[in-house]
Fold this protein.
Amino acid sequence: MFVHFLSFPLSLYLICDLNETLLALMLTVNTKFGFIHYVKRVGWDEKLVNESYPWIEKQIVKVPLFEPWQKAVHDGLLDVGVSPDNGFTYDHLYGTKVGGTIFDQYGRRHTAAELLSSANPQNIDVLIHARAQRIMFDTTGKKPRAVGVVFKDENGVEHEAFISRRRGSEVILTCGAIGSPQLLLLSGIGPKADLEKLNISVVHDNRFVGKDMSDNPMNAIYVPFNKPVKQSLIETVGITNKGVYIEASSGYGQSKDSITCHHGIASAEIGQLSTIPPKQRTREAIESYKRNKKDIPYEAFHGGFILSKIAFPKSKGELKLINTNADDNPFVTFNYFSHKEDVKACVNGIRIMEKLVRSEPFLNFTQCDSKTVDKLLNMSVTANVNLIPRHTNDTESLEQFCRDTVITIWHYHGGCHVDQVVNKDYEVMGVHRLRVVDTSTLDQSPGTNPQATVMMMGRYMGVKILRERVAKTKAKGLQR
């Protein structure tokens, strides 16, 4: 977590990590299909939105190298009807496209941290290894007012950071869909009964904090090769009209002397135990996989994944505190596939992937012999990989496959919804001088990857707040 102190515009920004590491795969900017409707619905200024996206793109977004695996998936998607070919574009359009990446030609990742280079260094202080514990409030007035933040340093010592008493000073919370509702609850904003159970002083009773949490469920199938394949992250995407996005990644175990063979975003080491039903994915199961991984043949790491992500999940969950320790993860459930429409979309995605792996462009690229496939079939559970189900015409078995093999793509959202927890200016309702600006305020994850929009939101709100403050200052000057 980073704590940003700004001497102007007199704000304290909380950017919390809280185990939500940004994997930074593909960055897609959504400006046309569907997204304009979303912009209007949430009340964003369309002109400022369209100014904010290019500001991000120019600084950290690159054109991908377009590796062979990605081209094979691209051509296969077109072959099975995910059309038209939209080429390289940041726009979110039905069909097959290649999106931008935050990795340059040398494989270096360019993150949101680099956007700080555009800041005035005299107006910003960044504290690293500072873990937010709770927000402090002055409750003596008619409405509670945020006055600062309690945080721990790298040695676990608590400190207090206060905002200026001058008008316009505020705390801006950007800890993500897990961290922001957690910190609000720890600070006394949330369902009164839940807070009182943990002896947290109630600052504002709001039953919506932590509610309607969503994640875009992902199901992945593995495509084996009989030799190593070049590594590639998500560049190609098929935006279908079936409620799913089809993406791909490849190339993790590169050589026989590699000591880090893994499966990237589908790795068991990070909890993506897709061959084990969700309720059996324990820490013990992860450790068991890690111990036994050395016995898995290298063919299990020579290949790539095709991913199916539910575009707009209807299943909802919630976030609750387990205790009052900010360093402990809260209890979170997304209730994957509890809504029948999500299950239907997943089945559609599996069937599209089946057609894709059987398409002529894809078969010409993989050229995987039956011996390798049979070897993978016999050890797929041990190797933590799922191949295409044998009977994709059986809807019932595919529905179970979706439930059993679901993993996350870390696109969590919700928990601090607009008009429930925050207003349209992202100010927390019921208190003064506190905003939340992150994915916890979104009711859907925009585009195939939300990080472009998340960064755009930061730029958008920063400019909006500055413009409003400058306008107020000018107005006061005219009144004198």
In short: The chain is about 30% helix and 20% strand.
